[in-house]
Amino acid sequence: xxxxxxxxxxxxxxxxxxxxxxxxxxxxxxxxxxxxxxxxxxxxxxxxxxxxxxxxxxxxxxxxxxxxxxxxxxxxxxxxxxxxxxxxxxxxxxxxxxxxxxxxxxxxxxxxxxxxxxxxxxxxxxxxxxxxxxxxxxxxxxxxxxxxxxxxxxxxxxxxxxxxxxxxxxxxxxxxxxxxxxxxxxxxxxxxxxxxxxxxxxxxxxxxxxxxxxxxxxxxxxxxxxxxxxxxxxxxxxxxxxxxxx
Length: 246
Ligand code: RET
What we know:
Order of helices and strands: HHHHHEEHHHH
Bound molecules: retinal
Radius of gyration: 19 Å
Helix content: 55-70%
Strand order of the largest sheet: 1-2
Structural class: mainly alpha
Largest sheet: 2 strands, antiparallel
Strand content: under 5%
């Protein structure tokens, strides 16, 4: 019997399609002499996810499961999240014209958020003792590290130049809603084990496709907005440095 993350559409092979599309847009922009900063970020995000899903499709990237007595735990997801969620924030921050300070805070707290989550997920009762009590402390830490991100998505968007600002608002709201569902799934899955690992995989898969592929499509298909961001220098120049190089 195939695990649910394989039987749920799209099949793993199709999950490469967004990446192939995003890379083709990036390389076309490059060939045409346009900037390809946002396209490269976006293509990298879905490519890393594609690799993670390929690892899961080959029955790897997890611990526990049927014959071990331990709940199946896909640690590969956290490798994916550690690498890709900062890149998504850079996408949004670039469109929003955020400065280097703001980007640094977002990226660092995001990494800490995911790390706290993966540590908490592993605080279980096992052969080395019962670590269950610490689980919620790490979850609380993860939620704390999530707060600067929430604050940014709620109040710092829309300041970007022209259409880029408007797009950052739209994509930022979409991100806020989807990202907030992850800790909810975590609580009922790794946290309290109310849902089965299979249901957990289905939830995360749906969220991943929306948060990465649909997210990416929203950005890459908005060439006008990307050009406004590039004109303002807010994407590829770390601190929104002006054209004169200062
Ligand atoms: C954890 C648990 C600790 C508290 C919080 C979490 C948030 C996770 C998020 C994950 C987003 C993943 C995405 C993947 C894309 O494919 C680590 C679950 C706040 C926001 C967007």
